[in-house]
Design goal:
By secondary structure, this protein is an alpha+beta fold. It has helices at 3-20, 25-70, 78-88, 95-98; strands spanning 100-106, 127-129, 141-151, 165-178. The protein has a four-stranded antiparallel sheet.
Length: 179
């Protein structure tokens, strides 16, 4: 028997033993699945933070609108509304610089609401709220909208086509005239 045939037989036997050996198969599965599971975990965590932030902004806008309607917010100007909103949004560290407030008058003739894809920018000056009910009186309507850009929690390496920040906004309708 030649040396080459003997070497070939040993190589085939080694390959057959290697193919039948199951040692380390659990580690291989773990190593290949860990990045996927960790990525799903981070995206779930980021989704939860997004929902929490959106809920906090929505609640703050509703509470500020209630303060305006009740007359508790003495002078509902753009800066006073921003200050009231930021006092309710204490979890956002730079709320005073990043929060944008929009006060948009709604025409009574058509009641056409403003477009939902408006850019986040300060708009309007103040609201003159209707604080009392008078039967048969037609009141003007204004939309109070707050926008806040927040940073994503998920690293950009996991989702490269996603921007690092996203916009959270909330809006409500107030009976009153916007100036």
């Amino acid at each position: 028997m030649s040396v080459f045939k003997l070497g070939r037989r040993r190589a085939r036997a080694s390959i057959a033993r290697f193919g039948c050996d199951e040692a380390g198969s659990a580690v291989l599965t773990y190593v290949t699945m860990l990045p996927f599971v960790f990525g799903v975990f981070l995206m779930t965590l980021d989704s939860g933070f997004t929902t929490m932030r959106a809920s906090l902004v929505e609640r703050a806008v509703d509470m500020t609108a209630r303060s305006i309607r009740n007359g508790a917010l003495a002078s509902p100007t753009l800066s006073n509304i921003r200050t009231d909103l930021c006092s309710r949004l204490t979890v956002f560290p730079n709320c005073a610089t990043q929060l944008k407030v929009q006060i948009i008058a709604v025409p009574r003739a058509s009641f056409a609401m403003p477009a939902r894809n408006l850019t986040c920018a300060d708009q309007g000056a103040s609201i003159t709220p209707v604080t009392g009910f008078v039967a048969g009186q037609e009141n003007p309507v204004a939309v109070l909208r707050a926008c806040l850009d927040v940073t994503s929690f998920t690293p950009l390496a996991l989702m490269p086509n996603r921007p690092g920040t996203y916009s959270v906004h909330a809006e409500t309708v107030i009976a009153g005239s916007a100036t």
